[in-house]
Design brief:
Strand content: 5-15%
Helix content: 25-40%
Largest sheet: 5 strands, parallel
Number of strands: 8
CATH architecture: Alpha-Beta Barrel
Radius of gyration: 17 Å
Distance between the termini: 12 Å
CATH superfamily: Metal-dependent hydrolases
Number of domains: 1
CATH topology: TIM Barrel
Bound molecules: zinc ion
Amino acid sequence: MIDVHVHLHPPRLYAAIRRWFAERTDWTIDHATEPAAVAATLRAAGVERFVFCSYAHKTGMARDLNAWLAQTARDLDRYGVPLATVHLDDPDPAGDLDAAFDDGCIGLKIHEDVQRLAVDDPRFDPVFARIAQREGFVLAHIGHVPWDEDTNDGPARIARVLERHPRLRFVVAHFGVPDWAGYAARMPQHPNLFLDTTMAFTAGSPLFAGADRAFVESIADAIVLGTDYPNIPYAYGSDLQGLAALSLPPEVLQKILRENARRLSPALA
Ligand SMILES: [Zn+2]
């Protein structure tokens, strides 16, 4: 298995994120956050490689955060590989992205809600051009889900991005909930558009999609495994149980758990 959506943050930032969840949600999240502990859990679950990310929620922090992410990947002997972060109000986001790639990052994480920005902001254009050129990928949390279902038409906004950057590989997190059908409808025109499974196949999760077997099979080449581990209020593997419950043909499951992710980056191939 390849898990493309894991969160590792520097200790102080992680503590702040956990406080936020403790104050604003009734989620009980108690998984250890140290990179080595997270890696050990994934290894024990049979994950062969994982992709991890953080995100810059204000200006002036992306460079340091990217350096921490790259160093953490080295500490993990690149069992985990990082996505970079940029902030659009920093002086040179494309330069920050380049530096992060030079240091071992393989793509970019965008969180529209936490970072208070939009993926279709034209200031992302030079950043996306760079990522496409360097054969990386984007993983994006679109809108304010699960706190608010309005994504300002995420599928249309991402289609516009992919029209400008057809070679850009773009993964929408959380299976695109609540817009998964809208993303699927655009996939014939945008073969580099993917959805990850993060929280969308765990019964009782606030982002449970309820997608059925026929739907999943219809976009089997465009689904990749993601989990949000360790920032989830349930055990690692719950999404896998949800996928297993669909009784998908083994070759379809294999695409979702591994083969599709290999197309996102040469580092995962
Ligand atoms: Zn996430």
